[in-house]
Amino acid sequence: MELRRDGVPVAVEPLVFKTLLMLAANAERAVSKDELLEAVWPGKVVTDATLSNAIKLARQAVGDSGERQAIIRTVRGHGFRFVAELEPVAPLIIASPLARELQLPPNELLGIGAPSELPTLPAMPSLALLGFESLGGGAVPDVFVEGLTVDLNARLSRLQGLFVVARESARRLAAARLPLAEIGRRLGVRYLLHGTAQRQDRRLRATVHLSEAATERIVWTERFDRTLDDIFQVQDEMVDCVVTALLPELERAEMERVRLLPSEHLDAWACFHRAMWHSYRFTADDSVQARELLLRAQRIDPGFARASAGLSFNHYLHAFLDTDGAAERHIQAAVENAERSVALDPRDAMCRWVLGRASFLDQNHDAALASLDQALLLNPNYAQGTYARGFVRVHAGLPDPAIADLDAARRLSPYDPLLFAMKSSRAIALAIQGDHEGAMKWAVDATLEPNAHFHIQAVAAACLQMGGRPEQARATIARAAGRHPGYSVKVFERSFPYRDPEHRALLSNALLAAGLPRE
Fold first, then answer.
1. d(C-alpha 351, C-alpha 467), whole Å
2. What 3-state DSSP class applies to 161?
3. Is 495 exposed, middle or buried (0-12, 13-18, 19+ CB in 10 A)?
4. What's the whole-number average pLDDT of the chain?
5. Could you tell me the pTM of the whole model?
């Protein structure tokens, strides 16, 4: 997808383009500032000046201005509205090599008439990969476009918890140039992955979109620019990048979708995704709601591995956040549910991930690392698995490989709901290495991320104390204690078990000096 004025492509920054898409997709109403911030800069702290500049550039891109407001109008006290007339156009999904090869009109690729019976939409997230349209004067080699599509389809098909339509079925419908909603209906999928590719000399640009089929709404988009020196290397890099970026976006889209469903319409998968939305808010009340949803998912489908995995993570959170004074019971339940999930589906990376986290809290660092290694063998692009291994490595006394994992996790998922934990863990690793300035920076930055809980405040206080900022450390500890009455060094040590006694003492002594009581 690209922006054109009078048929001429207009260069526009990705975030400005996302702003335009958000406004145009909701042209029937005014879009609030908060909605724009969440859609364009999810999880980021953005100033009003940044948003105003994006609106200004969006207006310039479509030939509008703040004075005219003929296309994008400011709605005082609320937000902005796309007021120009929109004419729906069926998307051109692919300049199909298949259609050229067979020399057939599009309707013959589908058979005669519409299918007599539409497939049932799977409960799990479902996707069809439609392919890439070759744009511009410099044609992209068919071997690249087809190879990229085939490799992407193969990689996505191997992922647990994702239903992917066979390539040939998606290919036939894409060649017919039907509207996205109709393709989704005929294939029986919720999401469609499609894009464009163009070349100028040795430069290649590919743009990928993830769309919700029923609404034709773009959920996620990304642009890739590469030099076309080794076509297969570029193809491999792009497949890795798309799979890495796509997974968390699908998870976010599913969590948002089921969050709004009526409770009586929730199946096992919907219960799981709504539970994970609650889990990532990291509060005691949300953890209770998440557990009820996961137990319901387990009752609906006793063989659903992710229900058990979610319950393991839920018990982990209850123990880690010290919600009810029964940490040891929750740790045991976390291990048991994780082991059950692995037994139900040993190929699901999430099941290995929760077993690694539960084993860590059970103070079995080696077993935790072994489970997380298995998770990453199953899915090398698993951002939360990479983060969790870095987290455990910090507490196992391996700060160097821990930092490598934590940096890789942030690269894999720069807007992850656990971003605060990635930054905080890096701060601990730096503190262990004696880099107190770096530790303070990362630890304080972690407290500014959404959903950062009281433990994150405590880590910041410890780093500030070690860095020679005792007054700031005491103020930060006071905030942590205010968010969790009864907080103590004992609670911290149970949630962060260190294998090396010296590392445990380093953090504990700093917390004591900052004013956190021993018990």
1. 38
2. coil
3. middle
4. 83
5. 0.63
